[in-house]
Write a structure and sequence with these properties.
By secondary structure, the protein is α+β, with helices and mostly antiparallel strands. The chain has 16 helices and 14 strands. The strands form 4 sheets. Strands 1, 2, 3, 4, 7, 12, 13 and 14 form an 8-stranded mixed sheet that branches.
Length: 443
């Protein structure tokens, strides 16, 4: 049994964004298709046309189209946004790396959508690939401070937010009811209380109260951020001396062993089997997980959301995922790009309403949460206004220290969790993870 469990955990490969593998819808961009389904990048000679690389026809591309329609109707009737659809976010990362390594930036589009957790590393590694937006006409105070912190590097703004990853704690309220609890019982609770409820739900329904794919490594970051603590301190790993991190890792291990936390084999097993296969009564992740939950029409009206548990029992807030738009070194129409970004994602509720309705993209622009669209009840979530809830929760997420080595840290901690679940010593495994991370960082 133990060998089978080890195999199950090691088989998973964590993919950070739910939307990383969107296919080519055809017609989003006008470039040539590449062999992997991506569309070739580059710019346009037309003075009213901007090119942008993005990767999901069901999520961020509809948001870009909503922004383009808004700008065309209200600012420039001749404006065209040529979307160069990529098979996944990794294609954009590869394009930046290739162009910067060769010094041939002409292969890049005017703008790229880029994942927040990656941008600090890519600006540090390839500073000449980007144009900053410090002089753009945007009130940065209108955005979540935590979101802006990702794309502000050495005090300079590089990106304009598109979507955020505000974490939701979603529960099947019908299954909670079977165990004798309500959604109100889950608001402002400790993780110990969560485990208590999870055991009751497991006993009554046979379902886990939480899931995360593979080795559960995203949970460390999410749970730790809700405590206002980072995995890094002064630019270095903060693991072995981080008591809250140790406590959280122990909780993850305990929840797994108690059957309260389900760790499926892979990302597809997490989304398709655990969530959509009704194996769980709860989901905690960035709000981009909502379309995955909503895919099971039979469960409409059975889900509701609230804030996260914390160690102390205060309401918890965190963020996981999200992306922003960046202007590349190849953009020759920088003023047009800045004006487009400032008008749309920098301050238009019309853009954000369209992005939400058409792609499920939730803004980090605080005034967007006040619109009628955000405050409408969502039938699937028992007619509660979940997007207004998410907007309010996102404004409470604390800014913690970020690092270009975010993903490396996540990988090392994930491996440590696997080993601890299967009998390894917590202190030794975390020490090993920290040593490996220090080596990767050149410390």
């Amino acid at each position: 049994m133990k060998k089978r469990f080890v195999s199950m955990l090691l088989a998973g490969v964590m993919i950070f964004s739910l939307t990383a593998c969107g296919g080519n819808s055809g017609g989003a961009g006008s470039g040539n298709d590449t062999s992997d389904g991506s569309t070739a990048m580059g710019t346009s000679d037309d003075e009213n046309t901007l090119t942008v690389a993005a990767w999901d026809p069901n999520f961020n591309i509809p948001a870009l189209k909503a922004a383009a329609a808004d700008y065309k109707e209200n600012v420039n009737k001749d404006f065209v946004l040529d979307i160069k659809e990529q098979a996944g976010s990794q294609d954009i990362e590869t394009a930046i790396t290739t162009a910067a390594s060769s010094g041939k930036y002409e292969t890049l589009p005017d703008m790229v959508l880029f994942q927040d957790h990656w941008i600090q590393k890519f600006v540090a590694d390839y500073p000449d690939a980007w144009q900053n937006v410090d002089d753009i006409d945007i009130n940065w105070d209108d955005f979540y401070a935590e979101k802006i912190d990702y794309s502000t590097i050495d005090g300079i703004h590089y990106g304009v937010p598109v979507d955020g990853g505000t974490v939701i704690m979603a529960y099947r309220v019908d299954l909670l009811d079977e165990a004798g609890y309500t959604i109100d019982d889950m608001k402002g609770i400790t993780w110990e209380k969560f485990i208590e409820v999870g055991k009751a739900v497991k006993e009554k329904t046979g379902k886990a109260l939480l899931c995360m794919n593979s080795d559960g490594n995203d949970l460390v970051y999410i749970m730790l951020q809700a405590e206002g603590v980072s995995q890094f301190k002064d630019g270095k790993p903060y693991i072995t001396e981080n008591d809250k991190l140790k406590e959280i890792v122990q909780l993850i291990v305990d929840m797994t062993k108690e059957g309260v936390l389900l760790l499926p084999n892979s990302w597809s097993d997490y989304t398709d089997k655990a969530i959509q296969g009704d194996q769980v009564a709860g989901v905690m992740n960035g709000n981009w997980i909502i379309p995955t939950i909503e895919a099971v029409e039979a469960n409409s009206g059975k889900w509701e959301i609230t804030s996260m548990p914390t160690l102390s029992g205060e309401e918890g807030y965190a963020s996981n995922g999200g992306a922003s738009l960046y202007i590349t070194a190849n953009c020759k129409k920088t003023e047009l790009a800045k004006d487009f970004l400032a008008y749309t994602f920098g301050g238009s509720t019309v853009t954000y309403d369209g992005a939400l309705k058409d792609g499920g993209v939730v803004a980090t622009y605080i005034p967007a949460g006040e619109s009628e669209v955000y405050n409408e009840g969502v039938e699937f979530f028992n007619n509660t206004p979940i997007y207004a809830q998410i907007s309010e929760m996102g404004a409470n997420v604390e800014t913690i220290e970020q690092s270009p080595f975010h993903y490396t840290c996540r990988e090392k901690l994930g491996a440590a969790i696997v080993n601890i679940v299967n009998g390894g010593d917590l202190e030794e495994e975390l020490k090993g993870a920290e040593d490996q991370l220090n080596f990767e960082m050149g410390n």
